[in-house]
Amino acid sequence: MQYFLPATLKELLLVLDSESKSEIIAGGTDLIIIMEGSGERPEKLIDITNIEELIGIKEEEYGISIGAATTIAKIAANSSLPCCLRSGANSIGSPQIRNVGTVGGNICNASPCGDTLTPLICLNATLLLRSVNSQRLISVEQFFLGPKKTVLKKNEVLSEIRINKEYLSGASGFRMIGQRNGQVISQVNLAVWLQRSKESGLIEEIRIAAGSVAPTPVRIIEAEEMLCNTSPEPELIHRAALLVQASITPIDDVRSTAQYRQDVIIGLFGDIMTQLLKEPQSC
Amino acid sequence: MKNKELTQVGRSALKIDGRELVTGKAKFSGDFNFPNLLHGYACRSKLAAGYIKDIDISQAFKIPGVVDVILPKDIPGGNILGILPPYDQPVLAEKEIRYAGESFCLVLGTSVEAAKAGARAVKATIEPIVPILTIDEALAKDARKIHASGNITVSKKLIKGDSTKAFNEADIILEDTFETSNQEHAYMETEAVCAIPSGDDRITVYASCQSPFHIRGHIAANLNVPVAKVKVIQAYTGGSFGGKDDAATEIGSLAAVAAVRQGKPVMICLEREESIVGSTIRHASRIHYRIAAKKDGTITGKEIKILLDGGAYAAESPFVVMKALIHSAGPYIIDNIKVESTAIYTNKTYCGAFRGFGVPQVTFASESMMDELAKKLKMDPLELRRKNALKPGDLNATSQVFQESVGLIETIDKVIDLNRLYKLPSEREERYLYGTGFASMYQGISNGAEGIDVVGASVQAMQDGSALIGIGLTELGQGSRTVFAQIAAEVLGISMDKITIKQVDTDSVHDSGPTVASRSTTVGGMAVYKAAGEVKSSLLKMAALMFKTEENNIILKNNFAQLVFDENAKIPLREVCVAAYWTGFPLMNLSFSKAPEANYDQENTQGNIYVAYNYGTHMMSIRIDKLTGEVKVLKHVAVHDAGKVVNPKAFEGQVEGASLTGFGLAHLEKIQYRDGVIINPNLADYAVPTINDRIPSETISIETYNPTGPYGVKGIGEPPVSGAAASFANAVANATGIRFKKLPITRQDILKSLIKI
Ligand SMILES: Cc1cc2nc3c(=O)[nH]c(=O)nc-3n(C[C@H](O)[C@H](O)[C@H](O)COP(=O)(O)OP(=O)(O)OC[C@H]3O[C@@H](n4cnc5c(N)ncnc54)[C@H](O)[C@@H]3O)c2cc1C
Asked: Could you list the mean pLDDT of each consecutive 10-residue stretch along chain A, which spans 283 residues?
């Protein structure tokens, strides 16, 4: 196994553009575990944590750009980011994991339970994928194909995550539940972003995404539609929660029964909505 | 030995090994490095049951760095594991695989990576057989026999009075069945050993372990050499909780065999997954419980059937069976008891000692039944416990009588007072359910029915007035070294900074049996007390000569010998030590403490078993989130009668730690199997409590004087596990109105039941 530590994006893309079996490593908090579990090693291991262009959170004209190799801890601590993304990041693992794990790793690992995925979906984030000869922008919703499967091509890297201005305003929240309180993987996680009209107080736009309840994180459009142009009372929130419940297809696994995922999502949804409508600023 | 003025005992002394531990200076087994060190990595079965047809090791040797592969036939001695009869376990499986995770060969490499890659390259042909995975499958009429003796490891009975009559004459009879899951020790440091052959034809093994003398014996048996050829040194050990006996013996023996064969040092450090699948866990249990009572709340009889799923090998099942048997009726006066306690073999990871040792399982059943009985009788649950509680002079379940140091009623009264003062949050939100649960328990101190209980300790005073203590019991993080130092300091009048406790090295300390059964302070402390007492008598004799007075006019205090009636007349102890040395008075002593032997009718388990019992009552108040099933512990009080408390801070640490283990057992932790394979062998999916899951335990001690321990001590290491687990279950029942009969009671279980109603 060869280990590469490119210093620029250009170098990285060149190394990536070869026939050999290569693997990008960022924090390694997913990859190393996979490698240890299988005993298999790629021919090339390409470490991207030395590439400055991939690190940092920058304000841009369109909104905010997050470098893919930015650590989870940096995201959790950045107050210019929306609440749901920060609290999603903050609920990942332990301080040690958050200090080395990256947001790009969380996305590209494409686990249905990744805790930044649902926030990014409800913030309508776009991903910039680059290869030596081209680049493309893709909506995060389109990125995931299944557990550990994405549209990323072999010679591509996720270089940045973009969030548009309109999603930086508005209120957002994230909730997850696991088997215990500390260092815990989501049995279910849920993120909601919404924008209310200044005049009427009605919800103008709302985006809801749920994780660990289907092969990929899922957006729940039916519930969004139900709540749009309303100023929801508990009754309506509960009806929307039932829609959320009906839209998911969870399975039994080592962390949770499908039943619990079905049951608990109602509570989590109600909890976020009540909080967002009552005190949207608290994060 | 009544407690007059104590200066060291009863004081919150700092942990004497705390500094090296927190600064990283302490060396653990995996920290060692020697020239030419080899690393061992075991090949483990992925199947729960099968016959080994062939092991092809040829591919392993193609991996760079692989040096050797050890097969069962390469073990010169008996290929034997197991601390007790029936000695049914091999170090390496030879013909039959009995659990998923069982090792059948060891690959040696120049690095861990090479050894591990080598282990992956070994091709084993194992013919699968249908595994037996549940108690019912094991007990089925024509079940396959996991061992030649059958599927019952051991079964014991306890019979007191006439339970049939009690049930016939009862006003009320309740009965129910309870279950508990396996629990993993999850120590911070996994099992690790390092074996070094030496030029003098001996072998030294550093081990992270609980009972170095067990390991020493097994290494000798597996090497086929005299025990005296083997030296085991307990390295700093990052937790054990009962778990570092069998697996430490397994890897200690393997490393020694490999080191002798190669003439090089060999290290084996288990990975977390190996530590979970390949070493003991707590017995899962199914307990059928019947209780007979009078209308006034007097419990007249109990009939209990305990089934312990012990996994593939006996390990310490025979002892756990006894402990569960003896404790299952609870700390109450009950004239008629019939208990049967049985351990069963299944094709799963083998079970052994784990903090509490069978008592948490039976206490959960017993205390759940107490609450159900209270409900039925419309009695206050604490009043019901108080009414039936053991007092000094009463006969307990084995008809043993203690005239002193039975503080159960005091623990209940304390909780009654605290409960009266404590108000659950008044602002009860719609979203939450609130409840409080109680549990009383007791736990025998010392090996008791598990065999002879002897500890040897040496105390040596130096000419500079310092002292060196040697004892064969191990420091596992529980603070025993500090407690022994306090006792020696108390006796000798030396300050704590002048006391050093030896590492447990089997060459230099006496075999003191295993560090188990909450016995260290009581039985071990007594040995230190006696040895120090002998040295003290030399010093007093010398000081008397120096002062030209009688010995009883002298006390040893603050590093001085001083006159009782004139504290300004004093001689530094170091001068007394020098003079004693040159006068020829012995400055070193090896003393033994032997607990009174258990003396009982083996057929019915009636008689004197333990030297003392710890008694306790816990109270736990919780809040349940109806949306998610999450439980927040608002208040937890653990009141224990542990005799005299030697070190209040360490005592608090033991109570908090053991309570958290109990909370984990009751709420979070569950070993999950699929086809007999553990599917959550890591600390992400196996939900051991983290720092964020800690419960707010308050520790209260009711000090009684136990005549069988130095200064009246008993023990505290294990008892709170049961109290916390059982009070949690009762708190959930109180909050929800639902009686959960299976541990753990997880968030999922709670939400599911709340939705049903
Ligand atoms: C103890 C522990 C607890 C954890 N808890 C959580 C949790 O609570 N919630 C959660 O969501 N996750 C959790 N994780 C998983 C993990 O920490 C996160 O998914 C983390 O964000 C992964 O980032 P990384 O940089 O370490 O990824 P890596 O392991 O370096 O990479 C993961 C995958 O992404 C690919 N990759 C990484 N960066 C890029 C890129 N820029 N472009 C293309 N491909 C890329 C890699 O090739 C690899 O396939 C936990 C992990 C551990 C070990």
From this structure: 96 92 97 92 96 98 98 97 98 97 98 98 98 97 97 97 96 97 96 95 96 98 97 95 97 97 97 89 69
- Residue B170 forms contact with A (CB below 8 Å): no
Rounded alpha-carbon distances, angstroms, from residue B533 to A74, B182, B361, B542, B711: 61, 44, 41, 14, 13
Residue B756: band (very low, low, confident or very high) from pLDDT cuts 50, 70, 90: confident
In the block, tokens 């608002």 appear at B634
Beta strands B599-601; B606-608: pairing state: antiparallel
pLDDT digits (tens, 9 = 90+) for A18-67: 888 999 999 999 999 999 989 899 999 999 999 999 999 999 999 999 99
Residue the block writes with tokens 């050890």: B70
Distance CA B269, CA B187 (A): 13
The residue whose CA has the least distance to atom 28 of ligand 1 is A28
In angstroms, the separation between the Cα of residue B359 and the nearest Cα of chain A is 25
- Number of A/B CB contacts below 8 angstroms equals 68
CATH number attached to the domain at B284-448+601-756: 3.30.365.10
At the topology level of CATH, where does B18-25+454-594 sit?
Aldehyde Oxidoreductase; domain 4 (3.30.365)
ipTM over 0.85: yes
CATH homologous superfamily of domain B32-129+191-269?
A: Aldehyde oxidase/xanthine dehydrogenase, a/b hammerhead (3.90.1170.50)
- The mean pLDDT value for B100-114 works out to 98
Domains of chain A are 1-47 (3.30.43), 168-278 (3.30.390.50)
Cβ atoms of residues B720 and B654 within 8 Å: yes
Give the residue from B351, B163, B347 showing the smallest Cα distance to B245.
B351
CA of A154 to the centre of ligand 1 (A): 18
Distance between start and end Cα atoms, chain A: 44
Interface residue A179 vs chain B (CB under 8 A): yes
